Every structure is written in structure tokens, then in C-alpha cells.
Amino acid sequence: MLILKELLGHEKTKRVSAPVLHQLTLACSLILSRIDYCNSVLHGAPSSIMQKLQRVQNNAELIVLQAPRRSDVNSLLQRLHWLSVEQRINYKLAVLTFKTQQTSAPQYLSQHISLRTSARNTRSSSIQLLCVPFRRTSFARRSFSTAAPLT
């Protein structure tokens, strides 16, 4: 919540006359870096938290592009080549999972990633799928070992 308060504090400093490139640099360094910091922990977080973070990112888009308040934020996202907050989280998890599988990752990460093996030889056995361990609680289901992409 401290990160959200800091982000909302940066959000209130609006509409400064500066070139778009400078505003883009400021938005990336002040806002997006805070959203991206440890955002994989936010996988499966309540939608109220995700909406607040998305609102901060939407306001950053409006500031950077100097767009009217009622602009369509999805088209602005595409114009800036930015991902939404939820997509950023999923992308970061996918990259972390890929790096853990393909490189010599630390043991504390690689022990959580295991490939699913089948006893039979089927068409889908050539596809590398991850084994999803059973977890009883919803908190445990949001942990890294089960939050990684399944395909």
C-alpha cells in the first residue's frame, strides 16, 4: 500500500509543460518502474488493488500524451506500446519461468519448476508443459510455483 500512496502522490503532479519525450521518460522512471517492481507478487491480487494500479498507469498515459481526460485508454496504451498492469504481471511471470527453465537459475527458483511427464506417448507429450502441484488454500495457489504460466 505504501507503493500505491507514493504512486498516487506522483499522480497529483499533473500537466507540466515539457516535451512529450521528457514526460515519457519521467513516467517510465517514476511510475512504471514502481508498478513493475516486484509486480509478480501481485499475481492473483484482489481486483481493487489491480484497479488502483491501472488507474495510476492510465493517468500516466494521459499526462505523457497530453490527451483529454475522456480519451480511450486502450488506444493510448497501444500508442505508447505499453501493457496493462495485469498483462505486465503475466509477462513478468512468463519471463521469470522461461529464464528459470532455460538458464542455470538459482536452486530456490528451479526447484519450484518441473516439467509434466506423461506415461503414454501422445501428440501433446512433445509439448513442454509445467506440472502444477496441488495447493489447498487460495494463498498457496498464488505462490510462485503455481503462478507460472501453464503453457
Describe the protein's architecture and organization.
This protein is an all-alpha fold. The chain folds into two domains: 2-87, no CATH class; 91-147, no CATH class. It contains eight helices and no strands. The two termini are 32 Å apart.
What does the secondary structure layout of this molecule look like, with pairings?
Blueprint: H1 2-11, H2 20-36, H3 47-65, H4 73-80, H5 85-102, H6 107-110, H7 138-141, H8 144-147
Give descriptors for this structure:
single chain, 151 residues, mainly alpha, 2 domains, 56% helix, 0% strand
Brief summary of the model shown:
With 151 residues, the chain is mostly helical. 56% of the residues lie in helices and 0% in strands.
Order of helices and strands: HHHHHHHH
Oligomer: single chain
The portion of residues forming beta strands comes to: under 5%
Tally the helices. 8
Rg on CA atoms, Å = 19 Å
Instruction: List segments where confidence is low: pLDDT < 50 over at least 5 consecutive residues.
Output: 12-16
Mean pLDDT: 75
For the sheet with most strands, the description reads: none
Number of strands: 0
Supply the number of structural domains: 2
Terminus-to-terminus distance: 32 Å
Structure classification: mainly alpha
